[in-house]
Amino acid sequence: MFKKILKCYDYKFIFAIVFLCLIGLLMVYSSSMITAITRYGVSADYFYQKQKIALILGLLIFCITSFVPYKIYSNKKLLQCSLLIVIMLLVAVLIFGHTAGNAQSWFKIGPLTIQPLEVTKLVLIIYLAAVLSKKQSYINDLKRSIMPPAMIVCLICFLIALQPDYGGILLILITCGSIVVCSGIELKTILKLVLLSIIIMFIVLLILLITGNLDIIFSPVRLGRFTSFMNPFEEELGNGYQLVNSYLAISNGGILGSGLGQSIQKAGYLPESHTDFIMAVIADELGFLGVVVVLFLLFFIVFRGLKISIQCQDSFGALLAVGISVMIGIQAFVNLGAVTGILPITGVTLPFISFGGSSLVLLLGSIGVVVNISMFNRFEKKYKYKRLEVT
């Protein structure tokens, strides 16, 4: 039985994930070695070593989640406990959290920094997939099917807004929205839900305007991020500084790149070169070909995840694979959009590539669940085929 299970794993999928992580580890070292010394006063391999530890831990969790049957996660008590823990963590980070990048979103424990948002995204995906898969018979009844989990999502988004981390809220809403859309809900019900969401957003903005707290969302710093990406060269020493230097790094790479470790922009000119703007360093050092390899691997992982969802006969597994795949795809799109100036800078990192232990560990744990769903899909098909062959 164990040998049959091993034969059902998608090893091309697993190889793509591991290979992408190894590229990320290499580029974290290359993009952070100068920053580590000049900006933080630590050894050149400081961020590399932290990312390496996170990668080892993440791969261990990946192995566990890829072997543990995914249907266990739909257990009601487990879901309730997970949601309670997430809410407690989000409340605790508002009281005891560490502030970085204008957001109080991290727990700092010695050399470790942990971001509850990463755990929150995965828990919400599992929760929505489990709840909506059990409500298929009345999925178009908004009051019974969508509204109860929507209230939980709104509560969690409110707690994240207090940090504030609007980039994180955007990722959560798009991911949760994709699960709802793929749950079998009718188009007219989706339109009702969209209209209701717009009305709620309008009411919230109106309340903030009346109370004089509109700058909570539209602060000068956040407005600067929106205006600078439209014409960054007008503010190249201000809000457009990051984007201008990202352009310079990308243009300097050409087809083959300037060579691994040879980027000039990472030497203090490009802020957050090992996190938000690591793709600019990849374009500089590995060139167009290096960018194509990274984009292909990201596309392959997201596409494979969506294909696994379509092939899954179990509604919980299908929605789970959709949520995790969309989460990775949207995060990559938002990051790449910021690096290329298509979207405003939101502080979203590039999946599996950017420096960030919490993000890497949770992403590997999440994609391990998708690998497990894929394994069960293949196993069930082979089992059914053999059973039919015998009869």
Automatic annotation (TrEMBL):
Chief place where the protein resides: membrane
Compartments where located: Membrane
Transmembrane stretches, start-end: 12-33, 53-70, 82-101, 113-133, 145-162, 168-187, 194-218, 286-306, 318-346, 352-376
Topology class, membrane: Multi-pass membrane protein
The entry's keywords: Cell cycle, Cell division, Cell shape, Glycosyltransferase, Membrane, Peptidoglycan synthesis, Transferase, Transmembrane, Transmembrane helix
GO molecular function term, any single one: peptidoglycan glycosyltransferase activity
Glycosyltransferase keyword on record: yes
EC number(s) stated in the UniProt entry for this protein: 2.4.99.28
Family annotation (Pfam families): FTSW_RODA_SPOVE (PF01098)
Catalytic activity from the UniProt record: [GlcNAc-(1->4)-Mur2Ac(oyl-L-Ala-gamma-D-Glu-L-Lys-D-Ala-D-Ala)](n)-di-trans,octa-cis-undecaprenyl diphosphate + beta-D-GlcNAc-(1->4)-Mur2Ac(oyl-L-Ala-gamma-D-Glu-L-Lys-D-Ala-D-Ala)-di-trans,octa-cis-undecaprenyl diphosphate = [GlcNAc-(1->4)-Mur2Ac(oyl-L-Ala-gamma-D-Glu-L-Lys-D-Ala-D-Ala)](n+1)-di-trans,octa-cis-undecaprenyl diphosphate + di-trans,octa-cis-undecaprenyl diphosphate + H(+)
Any one of the GO CC terms: cell division site
GO BP annotations, alphabetical order: cell division; peptidoglycan biosynthetic process; regulation of cell shape
Keyword set includes Coiled coil: no
EC class: transferase
The protein's role, per its UniProt record: Peptidoglycan polymerase that is essential for cell division.
Family to which the UniProt record says this protein belongs: Belongs to the SEDS family. FtsW subfamily.
Annotated protein name in UniProt: Probable peptidoglycan glycosyltransferase FtsW
